[in-house]
Write a sequence for this structure.
């Protein structure tokens, strides 16, 4: 067997060799290769496969847990595991099942080092294949599928895995997030201090970026130097002995300030000359960071400094957690996406810092955060890393590059550690993704776990809980939790009347009752949630509405069915049927699912209702609201709450239609597909018989009651400017509610008011 060298010896070896050194297990003399397989999905997730004796095989889910997933993800070159999956979630593999009952501690360098039954010894079938979901940027130079054991942040010559700030002063220790302290770097599994000799502001900028902060700030180190010297003289402190050992230090780091990770900076762990002491007269490097507006005390709105000129506002859409999402840019008054050609960590980091986060953990390509709708504004973005805004980077106009929304770029940013995850938990569920919501809040001066009142609990609140726990989106918000037992120590209701906007980072930041008021009394009426990693995102095709709108005077004799289904204004009740007609504003409605999960109705088949007009079952009773509003926002036409049968009317090339209304079929809208209700279908209208001529706003709201969870509710409203002269109608300026910048929306409204006054 091979013997590991003594602690001091690796420092004398060329550091490049350290990266190849893997502690072998008794069972496997060489590091094994892993890969992720299964249907094409986001990077970092899939069925786990292992190469042994020249053959790829799978791993059984028996005994597989989060520790094993952590080891696998690190071995694959990712930072960490998000979760693991069982029962062949990513499809059944082929070939041998190499590993079964895998038990890891979490710190192993390779799955081969974990305890298992032995290679090929298994009582499983491929329906039990394990999978993983990993997070963190895979660094360049790694093969895309198979890789040997290693850690994030490896570059030739150095293995830096993590960075942290160790707070020294009392005020820094009380701060959350920790913003000031001594830099500590994890190198080959051990934490080391970094010498302050030659430490620069650029180094601080990179460290702050990794910790989720957009900027560093100057720190007066003279007080820290006094503390250091006092500790060196203190006979009870071990600092003097420790600081004389080279294994205590990282000798020198030289960053340029635009690196996304400290591992990209030239670094000397040990002094260049043999037997030279590291950091002979120095102390530990001190860094102080400035948080972005979201993470400042009191969650203030935070004014960000913007220089005139090239500042293009950016936003993130459809992300699961804070600091991640599809990148959208405001140009020419309209929000649009960025093409992923040459999209890299430097450009992604500019976006992250501009939004008040740190550097980018991942620069995601291939619409991994869903596809946008509307223009693609930028392509081939090239940033140095020092820009204040994405608009300062060089880029091409996307029209000439042939980009499509399948190539929308996205980011995952480093965000400060806020410890919110420890202040909420789910209890009693069948899996870790569901259960009764229990929160940690101060009760009479001390922190206590308790339940949340189920009254008024909805999807917005559930979304915040799932995000806070790092479990993705909420798929269900439950006001009654009969079949989940909460924890005995959290039976008391400690929170009621919770109202969230849905964007908060923690439930504790939402509005709630001062004194708790919960007449139902908690217990089985406590709030519960079910979380899911991916969610659908429905968006109305605004352009199609504009192109297909027209007026029809429809005879009453053709409207009996529609009248029964309440698709006409109430004045139709008083007409002399079947004589006369109703004036209908008709249009086609095409609703796209741009998310990463199928949109499925909330109700099961048993609750669907038969609609005689359309000759099929409707799975959602109120799927859209159609309204005609005055420019002040009050309704003029009664509008119409439309129920739908949901199906894949069309899908892009390469995607199969899976949902169909005919023959009591399964209903839903698949990822990437769309459901079209043509203008000539009954009830696909607004009855404007009683509406006087004038200028109006035509509005469609999709999924208005938020009955089904979506990754982004901000694009569910579609509005058009509508001018009606009593005989004809003009529909123009159709857009989803979040498609334009505020200035453009204000201009549109001003023009509408002027037009209305002139009519």
């Amino acid at each position: 067997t091979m013997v590991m060298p003594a602690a001091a010896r690796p420092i004398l070896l060329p550091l490049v060799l350290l990266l190849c050194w893997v502690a072998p297990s008794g069972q496997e003399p060489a590091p094994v290769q892993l890969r992720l397989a299964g249907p094409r999905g986001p990077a970092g997730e899939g069925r786990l496969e292992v190469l042994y004796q020249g053959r790829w095989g799978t791993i059984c889910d028996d005994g597989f847990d989060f520790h094993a997933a952590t080891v696998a993800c690190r071995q694959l070159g990712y930072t960490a595991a998000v979760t693991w999956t069982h029962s062949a979630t990513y499809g059944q593999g082929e070939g041998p099942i190499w590993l079964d009952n895998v038990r890891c501690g979490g710190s192993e360098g390779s799955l081969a080092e974990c305890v298992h039954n032995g290679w090929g010894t298994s009582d499983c079938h491929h329906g039990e294949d394990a999978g993983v979901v990993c997070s963190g940027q895979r660094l360049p130079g790694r093969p895309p599928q198979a890789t040997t054991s290693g850690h994030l942040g490896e570059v030739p010559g150095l293995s830096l895995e993590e960075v942290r700030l160790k707070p020294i002063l009392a005020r820094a220790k009380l701060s959350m997030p920790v913003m000031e302290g001594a830099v500590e770097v994890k190198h080959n599994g051990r934490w080391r201090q970094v010498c302050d000799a030659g430490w620069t502001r650029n180094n601080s900028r990179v460290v702050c970026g990794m910790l989720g902060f957009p900027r560093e700030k100057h720190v007066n180190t003279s007080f820290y130097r006094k503390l250091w010297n006092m500790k060196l003289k203190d006979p009870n402190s071990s600092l003097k002995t420790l600081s004389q050992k080279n294994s205590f230090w990282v000798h020198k780091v030289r960053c340029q300030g635009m690196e996304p990770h400290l591992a990209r900076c030239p670094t000397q762990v040990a002094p260049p000359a043999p037997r030279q002491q590291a950091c002979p007269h120095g102390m530990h490097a001190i860094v102080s960071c400035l948080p972005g507006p979201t993470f400042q005390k009191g969650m203030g709105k935070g004014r960000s400094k913007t220089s005139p000129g090239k500042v293009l506002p950016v936003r993130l859409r459809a992300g699961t957690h804070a600091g991640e999402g599809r990148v959208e840019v405001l140009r020419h008054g309209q929000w649009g996406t960025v093409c992923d050609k040459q999209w890299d960590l430097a450009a992604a980091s500019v976006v992250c810092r501009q939004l008040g986060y740190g550097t980018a953990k991942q620069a995601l390509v291939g619409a991994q955060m869903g596809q946008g709708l509307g223009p693609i504004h930028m392509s081939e973005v090239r940033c140095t890393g020092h820009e204040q805004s994405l608009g300062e980077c060089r880029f091409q106009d996307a029209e000439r590059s042939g980009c499509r929304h399948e190539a929308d770029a996205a980011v995952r940013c480093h965000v400060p550690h806020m410890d919110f995850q420890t202040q909420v938990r789910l209890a009693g569920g069948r899996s870790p993704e569901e259960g009764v919501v229990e929160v940690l809040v101060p009760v009479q001066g001390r922190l206590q776990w308790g339940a949340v009142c189920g009254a008024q609990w909805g999807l917005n609140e559930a979304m915040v809980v799932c995000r806070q726990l790092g479990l993705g989106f909420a798929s269900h918000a439950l006001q009654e939790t009969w079949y989940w037992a909460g924890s005995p120590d959290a039976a008391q209701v400690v929170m009621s009347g919770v109202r969230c906007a849905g964007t908060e980072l923690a439930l504790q930041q939402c509005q709630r009752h001062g004194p708790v008021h919960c007449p139902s009394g908690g217990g089985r009426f406590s709030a519960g949630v079910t979380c899911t990693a991916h969610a659908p995102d429905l968006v109305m095709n605004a352009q199609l509405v504009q192109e297909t709108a027209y007026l029809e005077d429809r005879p009453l004799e053709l409207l009996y069915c529609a009248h029964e289904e309440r698709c006409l204004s109430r004045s139709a009740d008083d007409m002399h049927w079947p004589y006369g007609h109703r004036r209908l504003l008709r249009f086609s409605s095409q609703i796209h699912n741009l998310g990463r999960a199928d949109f499925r109705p909330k109700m099961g088949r048993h609750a669907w209702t038969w609609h005689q007009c359309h000759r099929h079952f409707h799975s959602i009773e109120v799927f859209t609201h159609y309204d005609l509003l005055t420019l002040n926002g009050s309704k003029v036409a009664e509008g119409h709450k439309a129920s739908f049968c949901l199906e894949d009317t069309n899908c892009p090339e390469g995607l199969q239609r899976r949902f169909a209304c005919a023959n009591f079929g399964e209903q839903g809208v698949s990822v990437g597909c769309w459901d079209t209700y043509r203008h000539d279908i009954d009830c696909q209208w607004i009855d404007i018989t009683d509406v006087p001529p004038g200028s109006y706003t035509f509005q469609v709201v999709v999924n208005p009651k938020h009955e089904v969870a979506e990754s982004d509710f901000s694009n569910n409203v579609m509005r058009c400017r509508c001018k009606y002269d009593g005989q004809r109608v003009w529909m123009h300026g159709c857009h989803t509610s979040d498609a334009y910048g505020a200035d453009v929306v204000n201009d549109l409204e001003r023009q509408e008011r002027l037009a209305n006054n002139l009519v």
Notes: Confidence is low (pLDDT under 50) at residues 1-29, 139-158, 298-309, 752-759. The chain has five domains: 33-134, 162-270+281-291, 314-414, 420-532, 538-757. The CA atoms of residues 232 and 240 lie 5 Å apart. Residues 538-757 form one domain.
